[in-house]
Amino acid sequence: TPSPRRVKTASAQASDELVSIKGWVRTVRRQKTVAFVEVNDGSSLEIQCVLPLEGVDDATMEEINELTTGCSVHAIGKIIESQGGKQSVELSATSLRIIGSCPGETYPLAKKRHSLEYLRTIAHLRPRTNTISAVARVRSTLAGSIHAFFQKEGFNYVQTPLITASDCEGAGEMFRVTTLEIDDVEKLPRAKDEEGNMQAGVDYGSDFFGKAAFLTVSGQLGGETHACALGDVYTFGPTFRAENSQTARHLAEFWMVEPEMAFADLTSAMDNAESMLKFVVSTALEKCDEDLTFFGNFFDKGLKDRLHKLVNVPFVRLPYRDAIKYLQEEIAKDPSKWQFPEVEFGTDLATEHERWLAETKFESAVFVYNYPKKIKAFYMRDNDDDGGETVNAMDLLVPGVGELVGGSQREERLDVLVEKMKELDLNIDDYWWYLDLRRFGSVPHAGYGLGFERLVTYVCGIENIRDAIAFPRYPGNAEF
Ligand code: 4AD
Ligand code: MG
């Protein structure tokens, strides 16, 4: 006889057909005449398997007695309408077999509730929990819809290197790649001096087979080379930051989505970021409804309303100077409420400032643009009409997270770019290939970077970015 068709626990529908369920046991309750076994197979809902114990064969009875949370099982039966339970259906089981047993005494997830902090210490098992499996599904849907968006808009997906000599953000936050023995590495110079300042013109040695090399902080520069040939492109890959931050918004390894558009200015970059976010969030609302309902119930009551608002309301676009003005007015009311009450032109906005703008002042996603030149990266295009004080840069701030996107129009004028790089003490020779793009058929171009884990945090309404990626990398944590 053919084996029964396998159905997913979340999408099971009542019918007369004999079907099979394969998954992991969440709970077991044994009564005199019946056993209730909740099974989850990685889809968004578990199903209750109801197994009458009268008249079952000895083998099944033995299995029932050994069932524990965490066992993998294969159940066969019919899906029927159910009265109680989370699901409107249940499996009326006629057979149940343990595939892999799970000793309750040592299984770290045997107990029902665990804190997210504890779950981070068992990152290899936490996808079996409701919360982290829901994050994983939303993450997958978001990644798929990001590709879908750019593909439908005609962007080419390009892959840029992870090992590189270029510090895109110029912040000296790169991990070094080395083929040297540990003892030798300690003798090499550091990117930052003892006070934490970037050291200009340091010889970083030649530890990557005779050359200096680091893990990339951004795929942008490689993205620009392709935009200046293919037109519109995007990268979506891992990036690394060697900053020692223990915050709920920073990771040492995170994924970044970086579109780059040729013949484009800052407004096109903002327009594109807004359409992209609206598209991916509406896709998540549609495809991850059960998971987002779960996050709404257990993490963030206003979640779906906020996501619907993001999709339906135009984002605010606010010059940096106005952002400073609003913040100064608000802070003046009660400076003691602020951790960083000093705000003036030139201030790099702190998360509390960003969140106040998005959450309180505008209750919306807000693009802040035209930032002061001195707090932004070398490649951003100078605003010609602003006394040389600002650059064509934008950050997108969203409620609950703060900065979600950072982008700019790029400086396409060779002489202006070289001058800027010199001012910042960058080694021009290291960027010869980047400057070639300005020597040979330069075009105005623009792009941005979206921190993928910040997007996952935002869409799931969870607090900590360490729960937005399967194996978070932060200072002191590179296990698993
Ligand atoms: O603002 P950032 O540093 O910009 C860039 O790297 C540009 N080269 C991007 C571009 O124009 N192509 O980073 C972009 C985004 C931030 O807005 C934030 O969402 C995220 O990346 N990000 C981080 N996410 C997690 N952990 C960190 N340590 C992050 N640093 C930045
Ligand atoms: Mg930024």
Would you mind describing this structure in some detail?
This protein is α+β, with helices and mostly antiparallel strands. It is 30% helix and 23% strand. The chain is built from 13 helices and 16 strands. The longest helix is centred in the N-terminal third of the chain and has 23 residues, at 130-152. Bound molecules: 4-amino-1,4-dioxobutan-2-aminium adenosine-5'-monophosphate and magnesium ion.
State the end-to-end CA separation: 43 Å
| Proportion of strand residues | 15-25%
- Compute the number of helices: 13
Helical coverage, percent range: 25-40%
Give the ordered list of helices and strands.
Answer: EEEEHEEHHEEHEHEEHHHEHHEEEHHEH
Order of the strands making up the biggest sheet: 7-10-11-16-15-14-13-12
CATH class of the largest domain: Alpha Beta
Low-confidence stretches: none
Largest sheet: 8 strands, mixed
**CATH hierarchy: architecture of the largest domain:** 2-Layer Sandwich
The overall number of domains is 2
Number of strands: 16
Radius of gyration: 27 Å
- In the CATH hierarchy, what is the superfamily of the largest domain? Bira Bifunctional Protein, Domain 2
Report mean pLDDT, rounded to a whole number: 93
Secondary-structure content class: alpha+beta
Shape: elongated
CATH topology of the largest domain: BirA Bifunctional Protein, domain 2
Bound molecules: 4-amino-1,4-dioxobutan-2-aminium adenosine-5'-monophosphate, magnesium ion
